[in-house]
Design brief:
By secondary structure, this protein is of the alpha/beta class. The protein contains twelve helices and 13 strands. It is elongated and about 65 Å long. It comes from Sneathia vaginalis.
Length: about 300
């Protein structure tokens, strides 16, 4: 039996204390908290569900819409309702689940830096989309555009994961003689002005695995393409939407790995005995953007 429950958060908050879920007729109850809906994280969710399909598992999915208070409320409701395990998709949701559920098994997925996010604990494990090939991305960018001197990095300055990624990009860029212009935003309304200011000063844009920026990637791609400046991304869904290229993670496979780890835990293995897993990136290229920028991307 495979049941997916999508409950409006407002309804939950108005119901007061939910009736405690217990394992009824052998049904295992799992809660999934997703920080925001966008293509990469949606693929993680699908991968998890596909692995669990056909099992005697009931899944409740909620989305925090990028809000910490909402992520915390979701985590509290999962704890009160007695979920057998919970999964966070994205850093913010994973942090809330870990902070509020100190004994229930917690899995994270699509978290770029579990260490910086302070997610590692005895009841926590999962999968990471950690950037392991920043140097390859930048070297390929310079190979295709030898005259590039400055790159802009747009990110959410309220996400520790994003800040750590920007630091790594800056470190690798320096080795190649490139300078980095940072463009931090705290919400979507700030992105147009931040993007405009950065694009005027740089030769290319680099978007890390940042939920705020990926949720607004179509706008960023349009703005970069208008001025014929390459935008490279860190995940393949952005390439499908028009980013030039990415050494990115297959987020559907990342979700499947997360689901497989959950099954290990449900079969009796302790989260502390399962190291978190990182995915192997591969190159994705948008052919239409290649033509627009009059370039051929080759490794």
């Amino acid at each position: 039996m495979f049941i997916i429950l999508l409950l409006p958060l407002l309804v939950l908050s108005c119901l007061g204390k939910p009736k405690k879920d217990t394992k009824v007729n052998g049904v295992i109850k799992i809660g999934i908290s997703k920080v925001v809906a966008h293509p990469s994280l949606d693929l993680v969710e699908k991968g998890i569900k596909d692995v669990l399909e056909g099992k005697n598992i009931q899944i409740e999915v909620k989305t925090a819409n990028g809000e910490l208070a909402t992520a915390d409320l979701i985590a509290k409701n999962f704890k009160i309702s007695g979920k057998n395990a919970v999964i966070g998709i994205g850093t913010l949701s994973s942090q809330s689940l870990k902070n509020i559920n100190d004994t229930t098994p917690v899995l994270f997925s699509a978290v770029s830096s579990p260490e910086d996010a302070n997610l590692l604990a005895k009841n926590v494990t999962g999968t990471s989309d950690k950037l392991v090939c920043v140097d390859k991305q930048l070297k390929l960018l310079v190979k295709c555009f030898p005259n590039i001197k400055k790159i802009g990095v747009l990110y959410s300055n309220s996400e520790l994961n994003s800040v750590s990624q920007v630091n790594e990009i800056e470190k690798q860029a320096k080795k190649l003689g490139l300078s980095v212009v940072r463009g931090g935003a705290t919400n979507s309304s700030e992105i147009p002005q931040v993007a405009k200011n950065v694009l005027e000063r740089v030769d290319a844009l680099y978007i890390p695995t940042d939920n705020l920026m990926v949720a607004n990637i179509s706008y960023l791609i349009d703005e970069a393409n208008k001025v014929k400046k390459p935008l490279i991304a860190s995940e393949p869904s952005s390439v499908k939407q028009g980013a030039l290229f990415s050494y990115g993670v297959d987020y559907y496979e990342l979700g499947k790995k997360t689901g497989s780890i959950l099954l290990e835990i449900l079969n009796g293995k302790k989260p502390s005995d399962i190291p978190y897993v990182t995915a192997e990136p591969k190159l994705y290229v948008n052919k239409e953007t290649e033509k627009l920028l009059n370039v051929v991307i080759q490794e």
